[in-house]
Amino acid sequence: MPSFVSLFSGFSQHTEHVRTSDTLKEERVRLLYSNLPSSVGISALLLVLIIFVFNSVIAHERLYGWSALLGVVLFGRALFHLYWKKYRSGAAKQLDWLFWFRLGAIITGVLWGVGGVVLTPQESLSHKIYISFAVGGLSAGAAITMAVDRVCVNSYLFSVLVPHIVFLLTVGDKMSLGMATMMTLFLLFLLPSAKQLRLQFEENCNLRHQAIESALRFRQMLESSPIAARIADAETNQVLFANSSYMTLIDTTPDQILSIVTTAYYPNTDVYADMMRKLCHGKQVTNELVELCSPDGNSWVKWVLASYIAVEYENKSAVLGWFYDITDRKIMEEEVEKMAYYDVLTGLPNRSLFFDRLKQALIKADREKRLVGLLFLDLDKFKPVNDQYGHHVGDVLLKAVSERICGCLRRKTDSVARIGGDEFVILLPTLATIEDGVKIGEKIREELNQPFVVDGKTLDVSSSIGMSVYPTHADDEHDLIKTADIAMYYAKADGRNRINVYYEAMVR
């Protein structure tokens, strides 16, 4: 971080460095231990969920043995937090507190890393995905709560993610390799993100330290800071001072800045009011994810990590706010989330997002006493095309099939998802009659009967479609998919290129 010492006469460089270093050390320890209860609580809750979910697929000796070890470590870390709250005073003890925190974090990370290996059944894709999401979620949380300490966050991330990545690579199947690649990319994304948060924390800590010295030094420091910062009246929210970075952030000029009311840039004023209430009660507001927008709500929208502190400025009660622009990172996170819920090849919702939509559709159907239709579609003669012309042609064909299916759906509530290689499901959440669903299925089947032209080659495929209706044929989303799948296999057995509606006599 650039030194501000040259701005302040009367203080030696060595003295300022020592003060800043001690303050940074104390603040780092405080933030780490302050975040510890939520981290331990979430880890404990996830541990309970894992025991519940994996109880039937993992040997009890392995599952409960690992759970017991992790539970003991989490309990120990909780005790350390209580001990720290009681005996945390004293700058000389900060290194000791930091050492014990790091040790606890590393042991916890190693145990989660071991869990990512020993609790991942190779034969169950859903449990494999569950563990991947679990270790990924823990890592994402750690990248925020431990970001202020490089040793903690890096050790934890590598301990949790690397064993799971290596395990997925050793499994060797296509899905595992894909998941390993995504987890590796996720790790490479978290490391620099955590570093940026740590750098911001260090800068913010120095800003706070210098603010205590005097109002003049405070202002000079803010003016030279690369972080967007402003001071606003605690009662009127009118800006009293803002640096050039803040003016750039909100797209204003020095002539206009002092007439600005800060709340005009918060689309959700309740969020801002809640943060100010926390300040009034003496609580810290640090690194809050906040949305900012132009006063007209149309020109721009930005996402920042915002921190606030109550200060005295020009004999007024004021609030210092500083903002780290993470708009680009927010966009990247949204893209990563899209990769988690959408099929990369076709852009259609994947199995995870489809299940969520299906659950919501059934809840709404129960409330409104409606039918929900599900079409389970499997392409006929796709494998010969793939084998003869290669995966590239097969991929292009799948995209074209997706487009044709989507083109057959006229209602905004209808949706299609790709859940397997050449398997698609179509959700009809506002079905009036079973016959209406059959008509839509027939329309799709006839559309897919038309030849496809890919790379100059004319390809003929067809589709076998099974249909099931809630609550006529199924009691929940799992049964609905299962019965539609059964009906689809009967359609294949009956000669393919047809649609079958599920009935009770079909063998499950």
From TrEMBL:
Name of the protein in its database record: Diguanylate cyclase with PAS/PAC sensor
Stretches assigned to the GGDEF domain: 370-504
CDD domains linked to this entry: GGDEF
Pfam families from the UniProt entry: GGDEF
Transmembrane domains' residue ranges: 40-58, 64-84, 96-117, 129-148, 155-171
PANTHER family: DIGUANYLATE CYCLASE DGCT-RELATED (PTHR46663), SLL0267 PROTEIN (PTHR46663:SF3)
InterPro entries in alphabetical order: DGC-Regulatory_Protein (IPR052163), GGDEF_dom (IPR000160), Nucleotide_cyclase (IPR029787), PAS (IPR000014), PAS-like_dom_sf (IPR035965), Rev_trsase/Diguanyl_cyclase (IPR043128)
One MF term in the entry's GO annotations: catalytic activity
Originating organism: Desulfuromonas acetoxidans (strain DSM 684 / 11070)
Keywords: Membrane, Transmembrane, Transmembrane helix
